[in-house]
């Protein structure tokens, strides 16, 4: 199947995006419904501000529409009726995340991974670099081994390790 955008006009892909230097500021903010939590994680690796409805405890269609409008987000959903009643919404039909990613790619979404982590995989917060000498959790790489970023909202740390590589490999297979 194919993602069906309502009123979606894909933007052109810049040379910087093609080279992997994706500017997350150019990504349209998204709201993913309760059925798309894993997809949100992949979109965050691609630099999207991808809010997940269940992070805010939102499941009701009217609340989803209101939240998307209030925050200026494009709704991504598996619910065809919800998409049809929400301006600019995109409906995905596949159940597995790779199929969903293919649908979004085919609908014009740029799924180039960001050059570095920019959004928290857990809460979608913005990431900032952990400076040299700042404390790091035990699970994070030692200073000098790999750059580390911390979420400004929840404090979780991220780096481009094996999980990042796995997500990038999945995106390359599309």
From TrEMBL:
Q: Which domain of life is it from?
A: Archaea
Checking InterPro entries in the record gives:
Mut7-C_RNAse_dom
Quote any Pfam family the record assigns: Mut7-C
Renumbered to this chain, region (Disordered) spans 1-20
Q: Which residues form the Mut7-C RNAse domain?
A: 30-170
- What PANTHER family does this protein's entry cite? MUT7-C DOMAIN-CONTAINING PROTEIN, MUT7-C RNASE DOMAIN-CONTAINING PROTEIN
Q: By what name is this protein known?
A: Mut7-C RNAse domain-containing protein
Q: Which organism is it from?
A: Candidatus Halobonum tyrrellensis G22
